[in-house]
Write a structure and sequence with these properties.
Layout lengths: L3 H4 L4 E3 L9 E4 L12 H6 L4 E4 L9 E3 L3 H12 L8 E6 L4 H14 L4 E4 L4 E3 L2 E4 L7 H13 L4 E5 L2 H5 L8 E6 L7 H4 L2 H13 L3 E7 L3 H9 L4 E5 L4 E9 L2 E8 L2 E7 L6 H15 L3 H8 L9 E4 L4 E5 L4 H14 L4 E5 L9 H12 L2 E4 L9 H9 L8 E3 L3 H11 L5 E5 L6 E4 L2 E4 L2 H9 L4 E2 L3
Helix pairs in contact: 3-5, 4-10, 4-11, 12-13, 13-14, 15-16
């Protein structure tokens, strides 16, 4: 049913019955924990103009039945806020790893080109120095379209955004019109929600098969990227060692990284302060978009020279050893970060990490296995245990580690970090993984202030310096 007629008469729209005000349109969404159909009475009592549902219900206000309330909410939010994605260049990036860094790279390039650009992602929703929101990779339908409208009204020309698999499965960005969509990679994560890798891939693929976009940029070296190419149509640019944008050479050390590529018969070399082998793909994705956009290589280089991505391979130097802080919380990300740390370390590599509670349990032993491959010593600790017991999560990780004698268990994260730093000797490297930019620890429903970077600075005192060589 077309809700345009109703939308012209309501004062607001919401999927939260507690947010309903007189004259609002309430959408009953069936979620993983709650079913909005059970809160229709509350919406009525708060003054709902009408309710949108997926099945017949008894109500004192008009009832509108639709096939999918999530899609109906997305389309309604799109219209209610003035179809903002049709007034902006929206760049959507999806994949397991690399989304946050790639959004920051593209944002920096567009800003260097003189184009006011908003960013929506895991760390914050930001326009320049103005923070519009934070706390979720991809917000709900109403927040998404309202934020796009806000960016537009603040003068933005572009918005670059992380698009999560949950968001695509739940139609949170429906029916956004994208300028470009990018695929980074796919490896195990979120199977507590998706159940299988096939379902996980199918959710990611929706961005390329169910949404309008001018160009699709895909990692051709990734197994799932190759599969995506078979079902994707329209203008496509691939990147990777075998891509349309071909990676010819990549070097990385504590001074930064250098990438040489070939694209449309020409070779280019770019350098950046970002560190890590995995940056070759993040940089290639962003550069592929920029070159497609027609942005000059010299301008791209100016943008890439110094890029700040909080909590992503953040380096803290002490007089004798180095500490790395990174958000890596999947087996693939742990392996990528520790592989680079192993290469850069002049001494031993000490890894400190845990795993999130109430999330994909199957990835925990795989994270342990990845850490064992590169670490001389592993300190297993808490991440965000949520409702689970930290010791049980640690046991799950430990199942993937064969050499138990290289493992120390310390469930208290602050003590675990201190233990790693106290044990580090000259030339060693300490890698603290899992939380990155996060400034809290979630335990039994309560978020306690906690920042890995802040804890490291407190422990090192005046001996620690965040930055690159």
């Amino acid at each position: 049913m077309d809700l345009s007629f109703i939308l012209k008469r309501v004062k607001g729209i919401t999927l939260n019955s507690k947010e309903v005000k007189k004259g609002y349109l309430f959408f009953a969404i069936k979620g993983t924990r709650f079913d909005g159909h059970n809160f229709i009475r509350e919406a009525e009592e708060r003054g709902a103009y009408a309710v949108v549902v997926e099945r017949p219900v008894s109500s004192k206000v008009p009832v509108i039945i639709v096939e999918d309330t999530r899609k109906a909410l997305g389309k309604s939010a799109h219209e209610f806020f003035g179809k903002p994605s049709e007034r902006l260049n929206v760049i959507g990036i999806t994949g397991t790893n690399g989304k946050t860094t790639t959004t920051h790279l593209i944002e920096k390039i567009l800003l260097e080109a003189g184009e006011k650009t908003g960013l929506i992602g895991t760390i914050y929703y930001r326009l320049g120095e103005k923070i519009l929101g934070s706390g979720r990779t991809t917000p709900d339908q109403i927040t998404w379209h309202r934020t796009l409208k806000e960016f537009y009204e603040l003068g933005a020309k572009n918005v670059v955004a992380e698009i999560s698999s949950h968001a695509l499965d739940q139609y949170r960005v429906y029916p956004t019109r994208f300028e470009a969509v990018l695929f980074t990679n796919l490896s195990q994560d979120h199977l507590d929600y998706h159940k299988t890798m096939e379902d996980y891939f199918a959710s990611k693929a929706k961005l390329f098969t169910e949404y309008e976009s001018k160009v699709k940029i895909i990692n051709a070296d990734d197994t799932y990227g190759k599969r995506l190419l078979k079902i994707t149509h329209g203008e496509i640019i691939t990147y990777g060692k075998k891509g349309d944008l071909k990676i010819l050479n990549f070097r990385t050390d504590f001074r930064g990284s250098a990438l040489r590529i070939a694209f449309k018969g020409k070779e280019y070399e770019f350098s950046t302060n970002l560190i890590g082998d995995f940056q070759a793909y993040n940089l290639s994705a962003a550069i592929a978009y920029a070159l497609w956009k027609g942005i000059e290589p010299d301008l791209i280089q100016r943008a890439l020279k110094c890029v700040n991505v909080p909590g992503r391979f953040e380096v803290v130097h002490s007089d004798k050893f180095t500490v790395i802080i990174d958000y890596a919380h999947t087996p693939d990300a742990v392996e990528n970060v520790l592989r680079t740390a192993r290469k850069l370390s002049k001494g031993k590599l000490i890894s400190v990490f845990g795993a999130g509670g109430n999330r994909d349990r199957e990835k925990r032993p795989l994270m342990g296995k990845a850490a064992e491959k590169y670490s001389d010593l592993i300190i297993l600790t808490s991440d965000n245990p949520r409702d689970e017991e930290p010791e049980k999560i640690i046991e799950d990780i430990l199942d993937g580690i064969s050499e138990k004698d290289k493992v120390i268990i310390e469930a208290d994260r602050r003590k675990a970090i201190k233990k790693a730093i106290d044990m580090a000797k000259e030339g060693d490297m300490v890698a603290i993984l899992g939380k990155g930019h996060e400034d809290y620890q979630e335990i039994k429903g309560v978020k306690y202030p906690f920042s890995d970077a802040q804890v490291v600075k407190e422990i090192l005192g005046g001996d620690g310096c965040i930055g690159k060589d």
